[in-house]
Every structure is written in structure tokens, then in C-alpha cells.
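Two proteins were folded this term; both appear here.
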Amino acid sequence: MVVPVARTDPTDPVDRTGPRTRDADLHQRLVYGDESALSEVYDTYGGLVRGVAVRVTRSAGAADDVAQEVFAHLWTRPYAFDARRGSLRTWLSMLAHRRAVDWVRSEARHRKAAAADDEVLHAIPAAEPGPDERVVDRERSLLLHSALAELPLPQRQVVHLAYFAGRTYRQAAAELGIPEGTAKTRLRTALHRLAETLADPPDPAYERGA
């Protein structure tokens, strides 16, 4: 058996028909629906196609999708490739680049559309409360202030600092000069009393003696 020796001298006459002949053979087999031909093309050029797609999309997932589209296109439309006009390698690279660019443009359009939707949503004014809701809110506000006024002064001070001045109970303790545990206990007791008052407000008719 004769083992072919690789040519290293650039002046040697290299057989240039090999790749073209192989491409023409693969193309013919694809036209006839030979699935093994598609497997050979994928094994030979799959890495190349995916590499082109990754460089353009900067996304491994997108590159996989692009590669699938490229080889599906070759399988369903084998006549799109003309072995007389160039190599299969070049044609697949160009197709991968074009599909990857399409993916990038599509993603840009989706992001722009999503941003526009967000702007529209933020531009919608919040629904104004109706007359009944305003009455209820005003009554609850008055009830809350009344309940606060009934709290002992030490508890009222902690609630004011925590919920109206934005302090933590530790900061409130420091400002009032009391231990943190004391501030926490006063706050918890005050909130419990307020919750009971707001959950079961007195009946105005009963208050008027009706």
C-alpha cells in the first residue's frame, strides 16, 4: 500500500480539485436526500459555522440556533449551493454570517419594542381614587392619628421616629437615650395597640349615642 506523502514545497503542483470534487459529490448526495451526506457536512463544517455565529452574536445559545438553521437550509434547499461558484466551506460561512446578523438585528428590535412597551406602561397614570375611597382613606387617617394620640408618650415617640422620621429602632433608641431592647418593646407594643384599634374601629353611630 502506498502512503501519500504531504507536500510541503509551495511550488509543488498540488491537486486543487479535491475539495471541489468532494463538495460536488456531497451536493449531489444532498440533492438525492442522502442523510449521511448531511452528517458528513456537519462533522466537517459544524465547528466553523458555529464559530462564525458566536463571533457575530456573542451568544452560545444563539450560535446553536444559527447553526441549526444553516444546516436545515442546506438540507431542505440543496440547490441553493452551487459547487461551480465556490466551495461549500465559503458558502456555509457566508450563510452563517448572514443568519447571525439577522439574529442580532432581530434581538435589537425586540429590545427596542420591549423598552417602548415599558415606557407606555410607565406613562399610564395611576388610577385616581374614587369619592368613596377618598372618604374611607380620610376616615382611616383620622382614626390613625386619634389612635396615635391615645398612645403613651414613650410609645408615641418611638412610633414617630420609626415610621414618620424613617429611623430604625436602634437609631430611635440612640436619639431617645434608651436601651435598644426598650425601644423595640415600646415599638412592638405600640404597633399591637394600633393594629387592634384600626382592625376594630368604634362605630360612629354608637359614639354619637344613636
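Next, the second protein.
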Amino acid sequence: MTASPGLGTPQLASPDLLRSVFRRHAAGVAVITASGESGPVGFTATSLTSVSAEPPLLSFGIGTGASSWPAISGAEHVGVHLLGEHQEDLAATFARSGADRFGAPTAWRPGPEGVPVLDDVLAWLVCRVVARVPAGDHRIVLAEVVLGDPAGAGRPLLYHQGRFNALRH
């Protein structure tokens, strides 16, 4: 392989290459929630994608080794919450292994279909899981929107270069 002018030396595919490239990709931050046998579960996701408008479908990825996976693997419904720039601490809590994600100061309530709904987010959806597609050490969850609220105030929280960031104009 030869380098292109002004670019570095190409690297062969590896987990490190993929992580390095996606650190440069700014992504919105969401928290996915579900009801589990032992109570509510949730995790921070930057893999949220709109899939289809008709019917309204979205997708997100989750590692099969994640603490939330057992609940997500059997959940009929999930909550999808878009976080605002004022929610960096909340994003970090849901990203941290072993954290008490639904304890204080997390503000939430039981929502439609028993899904935990977080307070003060930019927008939230309750979705019916329609498929879980194997993808390496992850599963891609496809979910159909049932209902939601897009009316939260604020600007989006982003994830870039391994950190949470505010959108700048």
C-alpha cells in the first residue's frame, strides 16, 4: 500500500483502526432504556440511526457483553432518549460500567409500555423491537416507533474524540 499525498500510511483493518476512525466521527448521544427482570436498564448509545420513515423505524447497536444486553435481548419495547448538551453527566452515568444509572440524580418515570422515560431530554420515543440482527460482537436492534415527544428544549450533546461535546456555531 502506498500513501496518498497529504495523508498518512493506510492501515490494515483492525479494531484499533475502526476505533481511531470513529473517534473522528461526531455523533449524537442517546440513552436507550428498557425494563428488565431486576428493574430498569439503560446505556449510552452513539449508534442511533433513522432507518425508515414509513413505517417509522430506527436502529442502534449494543454489545452482547453489555450489562444491559440481557434485558434488551428480551424486551418488547425500548425507550430512546436524545440528550441535550446540559446532560453530559447523565450520558457519562449511562456509559459507566457498574453505575447506579437510575439512582439519584437521574430523573425518570415509568412510561408507556413500562419503558423507563428520562426527564428533561431533547426528545424521547417508545419503540417496539422488531428485530435483533447479529453483527460481530454486537446486535443491531431494529425498532418501530410507537409514540414520543420531540419538544424538549436545548441543543444536542455530541460525542467526538472520546469526549462529550456541545454543538458550536
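The first helix runs from residue 15 to 23. The chain has a mean pLDDT of 93. These notes refer to the second protein only.
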